Amino acid sequence: MSTRVGIVGTGGIAAVHADNLARMADAEIVAVTDIDETRSRAFADTWGGRVDPSLEAMLEAGGVDIVHLCSPPGLHIAQGEAVLSAGLSVLSEKPPALSLAEFDRIRRAEEASAGWFATVSQHRFGGRAMWLRERTRDESLGQMMTAVCHTLWYRPDAYFDVPWRGTWESEGGGPTMGHGIHQIDTMLSILGPWREVTAVAARRARPVDTEDVSAAIVTLESGAVVSIVNSLLSPRETSYLRFDYEHATVELEHLYGYGDDSWRFTTAPSAPETLDSDWAASATGRGSGHAAQFAQTYAALAEGERPLPVTSADARDTLELIAAIYASSFERRPVVKGEIDESSPFYTSMRGSGAPWA
Questions:
Q1: Ramachandran sector of residue 86 (left: φ over 0; alpha: ψ -120 to 50; beta: rest)
Q2: What is the model's pLDDT at position 1?
Q3: Which residues of the chain, if any, have pLDDT below 50?
Q4: Where does the chain cross the membrane (predicted)?
């Protein structure tokens, strides 16, 4: 039986969802909604599904197993709560919420629901990323030493002509929150929890309320040190992850999605002879992309016995590090994991105590 999908928001990212869903034999778009009815009807004409006037109407009409939130970030919390209160599961685009306070509201709604809340983290699901995650856990690459996590993208001034872009109220932050979150999430999924961060952020050029560049030094629970840079000012765009282990360096360079050829593997002179052949065998042909995560999400949904990947706990860990980067940047001090609680201004907004340039 196909998973029946409802889609909220029919902009560009919804088309990515629909294209990936169309490649799957066990998924079907059955309902769509958008504040722009003309756009939602055009979307339905292309990808299928009935057109509902609102999310509430979609939930009332029924016939949906899971709702994909492809709407602007500022809408995710209310929409997620509505879907969960109807007993259905949610798959939300990133960022899933604009603050830890908002996300904790979603988690409380999840606890009271028969459904689950999952976040799109498509870069976790490529074959070689999963291989590297396993090798990190079993330490066959040796001890993790240091890593690089860079999201160097370019967005011109005209990109921010869309009213909700570049604002704390609608996007929750700049490239740290809305763009670098993809690489940050992938890095944490491979290397594990973080412990402390020291960071800077600045608004250098773009007509925005938020930052347009940030940099952070993160110490992981393992003791490894990671440099993170997030930029919307970089004409040669790239997404770059580098992992330096005792026995090997593993690099990933791509832009918005990777394949097996996007990776590079370099062994140390002292590395076990089996590492190169093990790496060669990791070329599964499965790159990053929504379809890989959709497949695992729908399998979990069908089983009904475990939370959907990526779980709300996974997503919160990533969101907490992002909040800590802002807190460290604006208050000019190191921030440790767990420090941003309900007493912190950065719990309710990534802007926290206020950007220095405000």
A1: alpha
A2: 73
A3: none
A4: none
With a CB cutoff of 8 Å and minimum separation 6, the contacts of 300 are 116, 306, 307, 308, 309
Question: Tens digits of per-residue pLDDT, 305-342?
Answer: 788 899 999 999 999 999 999 999 999 999 999 999 99
For residue 312, give every residue at least 6 positions away whose Cβ sits within 8 Å of its Cβ, in sequence order, or none: 96, 103, 106, 107, 110, 116, 117, 118, 119
CATH of domain 3-121: 3.40.50.720
SS (H, E, C) the chain: CCEEEEEECCCHHHHHHHHHHHCCCCEEEEEEECCCHHHHHHHHHHHCCEECCCHHHHHHHCCCCEEEECCCHHHHHHHHHHHHHCCCEEEECCCCCCCHHHHHHHHHHHHCCCCCEEECCHHHHCHHHHHHHHHHHHCCCCCEEEEEEEEEEECCHHHHHCCCCCCHHHHCCCHHHHCCHHHHHHHHHHHCCEEEEEEEEECCCCCCCCCCEEEEEEEECCCCEEEEEEECEEEEEEEEEEEEECCEEEEEEECCCCCHHHEEEEECCCCCCHHHHHHHHCCCCCCCCHHHHHHHHHHHHHHCCCCCCCCHHHHHHHHHHHHHHHHHHHHCCCEECCCCCCCCHHHHCCCCCCCCCC
* Burial bucket for residue 101 (CB in 10 Å: 0-12, 13-18, 19+): middle
At residue 305, the pLDDT reads 78
Q: Which CATH superfamily is domain 123-291 in?
A: Dihydrodipicolinate Reductase; domain 2 (3.30.360.10)
